[in-house]
Amino acid sequence: MLTFSNHNIDAPQAAEAVRALAHATIRFDHDDEPPGPDNSRPEHPKDTYWTLGNVLAIVRSLSQVIQQIDAAHTRNAGLARTDDGSAAEGREHVAAVHQAALDAQLALERVHSSLDDAMSHSARIAWHPPESLAFTAETATIAAEPGATAAEVRDMATDLSDHGTLARRSAQGPGL
Fold it and tell me: Which of 63, 91, 108, 119 could share a disulfide with 52, CB 3.0–4.6 Å?
């Protein structure tokens, strides 16, 4: 259980949660749906939008964690020593941590900006279940015979209501 006050407990739990998310996003299916004939569950790409939003929150929080780790190093620079007791080298390492943390902050700002852009585009996608997709004149052109008129292609698009019909017509050859 998260403590919100003990970094020694919360950090490994956060790492494990992100690791679990990495596994859970291999496919965007739902565990509560029964598998189909091919023993797989249908995917729900609409879930990617919400997952992106949560990843954005992770990046924002990670940025804050890095700032706070850097601040702890800076506040306690006077206590820093190397294993052999060198205070000067200890402070050099604190300065190196500070610079690396700043670099990480800049990188996370770029990550955040890119994810925000991805989320903006994802928000504009209307995902339809595969069985609801109707074929347009553009997709029917694939199955139409060479030289078909626009009206013939439109008629074919109207006639084709599912992938199976398109596959059967394509297998039979053009114009059949």
Answer: 119
